[in-house]
Amino acid sequence: MRKGLTSVLSESAARLYEQLIVSGGLSLEDHPDLGTTAECRELIDKGFARERHVGTPKLIPVEPIRAIDNAILVRQRALLDQYQYLLRLRDEMQVLQQTYEASANPSADINELVRIVSEPAEVSALSVELALSAHSDVASLETEHSSRPRKPENARVLPAELVERGVRFRNIYSRAALELDGAGEMLQASIRSGWICRVYPDLPMKMVLVDKRAALVPLGPTGMEGALLVRAPVIVATLSRYFELLWAGAVPVDNESAKIPPEQDQVLRLVMTGMTDGAIARHLGVSERTVRRHVSALQEALNVNNRVTLAVAAVRQGWVD
C-alpha cells in the first residue's frame, strides 16, 4: 500500500481504492454489501470513488490526479483556516492587552459595569435602546431558542436615522435557527431591511453587542429569563473578539453578489453551513429533489464529486466569500 494515501484515507479505505484502481471498479451486484461499508462511504465522501448506475451498477474509482488534488485542496484549506485562526487569536490577545492596560478605574461602581436585568419587558426595551444608541456597529447572535414564532413581520426593521448614520447591522444565525418553520421568510425580510446575515453551525447563546462598548447577554436560552447588561471594557472587548471570530467562520446567506443563479447560490451557501438536503428543502420551501438537482448541477459545474470538495472549489472559484 502506498503510504501517501493513508495520510488522507484510513488503511482499509486506501486498500479498497487501490483495488478499484487495479480492477477498474467493483460490481455492486456481485458485492451487494459493498455500498454500505464504512470504507466505501469514506471513499465517496472524500471524492475518491463514486457509484455508477448506468448499465451494471458499479463502484468505480475517481481518477487519482483528481481525487488526490481534491484531497490536497481540502488539506490546504484546513491549514489556511488554522493559520488564520492563530492570527485572529494573536490579534485578540493584543486587543485584550490594550484594554487591560487602559481599563476602567478599579474603584468604579460595579453596578455601572455589570447589571442584571430580570424583567422580560425591560430586556426587550433595553435591546432596542442599545441598538438605537449605536454609532457604528450592532452585532447580534440568534439561536433556535425564541419566545416568538418566526414570522416575516417579526423581522427587526432598521430605523432610518441609524441607516443614514451609516450604522452596520450584522447578525449570525445558528444553523438550527434557520431550520425552523418560517425562519426562511423572516431571514429574507431581515436582509431586505438591511441586516447583513451569516450562518454558523452552532451557537451557545444569544447576544447583542453595540459599538464594542456594551453587550446584552441572556441568562437563559430565549433571553427573556433575564440578561446581563455589560459595560465593563475588558468583558465587552472579549465578547467583541468572540463575535468577530464567529463572523469570520460563518457563511454569508445573502446572494446580492452571486456569480451563479440565485436559487443555486442559496443552496450552495446552505450546503456550506452543513445543512442536509431535507433541511435545505424545508428552509427554501422546495422539494428535496430540487435541492439534489441544484447540488448535482453545482458539482458538475465545478467538476467535483462530493460536498467537501464542492465547498473548497466554490471558495477557490470565488462563488462565495
Task: Please name the defining characteristics of this protein.
8-stranded mixed β-sheet, 3-stranded antiparallel β-sheet, Endonuclease, Chain A, Arc Repressor Mutant, subunit A
CATH level 1 class label of the largest domain: Alpha Beta
Sheet with most strands: strand arrangement = 4-10-9-8-5-6-7-11
Rg measurement, Å: 24 Å
Average residue pLDDT = 81
* CATH superfamily membership of the largest domain: Endonuclease Chain A
What percent of residues are in strands?
Answer: 5-15%
- Number of helices in the DSSP assignment: 13
When the domains are counted, the total is 3
Largest β sheet strand count, sense and barrel closure: 8 strands, mixed
Shape estimate? elongated
Helix content: 40-55%
Low-confidence region ranges: none
Q: Please provide the count of β strands.
A: 11
* Helix/strand class: alpha+beta
Task: Tell me the series of helices and strands, N- to C-terminal.
Answer: HEHEEHHEHEHEHHEEEEHEHHHH
Here the CATH topology of the largest domain equals: Endonuclease, Chain A
CATH arch. level architecture of the largest domain: 2-Layer Sandwich
Straight-line N-to-C gap = 38 Å
Oligomeric description of these chains: single chain
